[in-house]
Design goal:
CATH topology: OB fold (Dihydrolipoamide Acetyltransferase, E2P)
Domain TRNA-binding: 8-112
Largest sheet: 5 strands, antiparallel
CATH class: Mainly Beta
Keywords: RNA-binding, tRNA-binding
GO molecular function, one term: tRNA binding
CATH superfamily: Nucleic acid-binding proteins
Distance between the termini: 21 Å
Shape: globular
Structural class: mainly beta
Number of strands: 9
CATH architecture: Beta Barrel
Protein name: tRNA-binding protein
InterPro entries: CsaA, NA-bd_OB-fold, tRNA-bd_dom, Tyrosine-tRNA_ligase_regulator
Radius of gyration: 14 Å
Order of helices and strands: HEEHEHEEEEEE
Helix content: 10-25%
Length: 112
């Protein structure tokens, strides 16, 4: 693993947001969920496609806070424009477990 400087870390915008809508992603190659995440007034609502179907269903994600990188360029995933990268870590079988704040925080709050 290559070390980075604190200045490198500061370039990554990791923000808290609340999922306001979630739908199955029918055109993705791998099972995925389309997410619409509210990051507050400064950033607004952004979209993400996430391979999180092992532990999560769309209806149970709405209202949940997540952490995401908001300053990557958008990517098209199965015809859907994903604007942010939702963060997670693998469980013992490699399935994604989402990262979230331990307590409710304002949407758009920057991780430091």
């Amino acid at each position: 693993m290559e070390p980075i400087t604190y200045a490198d870390f500061e370039k990554v915008e990791i923000r808290a947001g609340t999922i306001v809508d979630a739908q199955p992603h029918p055109t993705a190659r791998k099972p995925s969920i389309q997410l619409w995440i509210d990051f507050g007034a400064e950033i607004g609502t952004r979209k993400s496609a996430a391979q999180i179907t092992v532990h999560y269903s769309p209806d149970r994600l709405i209202g949940r806070q997540v952490m995401a990188v908001v300053n990557f360029p958008p990517r098209r995933i199965g015809g859907f424009e994903s604007e942010v990268l939702v963060l997670g870590v693998p469980d013992e079988n490699g399935a994604v477990v989402l990262l979230k704040p331990d307590l409710k925080v304002p949407d758009g709050g920057k991780m430091f």
